[in-house]
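I have been asked to look over a protein record a colleague put together. This is what I was given:
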Amino acid sequence: MKKAKKLRTKYTIALLYHYLSKEEQKQYFSREHVITDTQMQTDEIVSYMRALFRRRGYRAQTIKVEEKNLSNLKKLTDVDFVFNLVDSKALEIQIARILDRLKIPHSGSSLEAIRTTNNKLHSKQLFEKHSLPTPSYTTIRRTDRITRNLVPGKFPVIIKPAFEHCSIGITDHSIVQNYAQFKRTVKRLRDKHRQTLLVEAFIPGKELQVTVLETPDKTLALPIAEIVFPRKESKWNIYGFKEKWTKHFDTCLFVAPPKRLADTITTQIKREAIRAFYALGLRDYARFDLRFNPKIRRWYFLEANANAGFDPDPRDAMTASIRAHGMTLDDFVLQIVKNSLN
C-alpha cells in the first residue's frame, strides 16, 4: 500500500486517552488492572500520534479523561475526529457510549461491538452462530456447584475470567490437567475475580494473532503474527498476563508471518478472520486471538479485541503484522482516520 499523501485540509483530531491517578490506583479493581490501565507506553503513543497528525497537515489535540472527571470531554465539540485510545476497565464502555451518543466520527468499533468483545461468552456464542471454529467450553457461574459435568471434554482445559481484558487472570496455572487441579483453580479464580468463569478445551500448538483493517475499498486480514518463546520458559506457549505485560522480548515476541504454517492454512485463517470481523460487528480495525493445532491442522478463535492497543515496537503483534504487509504504523493509523474523514 502506498503511503498516504499529506493532507492540506485542517481537520482537528482529538487523541482521547485515560489517566489513573495515584489515589485512584489505591482503590482500583486489582494490581493487575492498575498495570494494564496505567500503560507505560500511553504517553509514547499519544506523543507519536500527535506528531504524526501534525506532520500530515491535521490539527491535533490531546484530551485526558479520568474515571471520576470527564469534564475534558467538553472539548470534543470542536473536533472533527476522535482517535479513541481509552481501553481501561473503568472507562472503556462509558467512553464508547458517549462517543456513539455524540455521533462524532471516531476510531474503532461501536459501543455494541466493544461490549461484545469484552464478554468472552458472547463472543464465543457469535463464533458458534457463524460457524467459526472455537474451542468447546462450559461456563461456571459464581453460584454453580463444581462438578465433573463442568469440564468440557478431556483434560487439559484452560479456565479464564469471562469478563476481563488484557489477559488478566490468564497464566500457566490457568491450565489444568486433572479434576483435582480443576476444582482448586476454579475456587482460586472465583475468590480473586468474583465473576463467571469460562472453561475451554486447551488447544496445543501455536498461539496466533490476526489483525484486520477495514478500508473503503476492501477489508484486509494482515499477515498472521505468531508468538514465539526463544527461551522456552512457557510449557504451554500461551500469551498470558506475564507474557503480555512484562514485555521481556527475550522471553517471548511476535513474528509475522509465522514459521512453518502452510499457505493454504494461512489463506483460510485470514479469510475466516474477515468473516469474524463482521460477525462480531467490528469496524475500522481489530485483532483476533487464535490457537492452531498443527497435528490436526485446525485453528480456533479464542476472542477478539475491538479496541486493540498500539505499540510502535516491531515485535508487538499488530505492528509486526502491519510491517509484514508492507505498511508502516503511520499508514495504518492514517487509514483509520481516512475511513471517516474521506
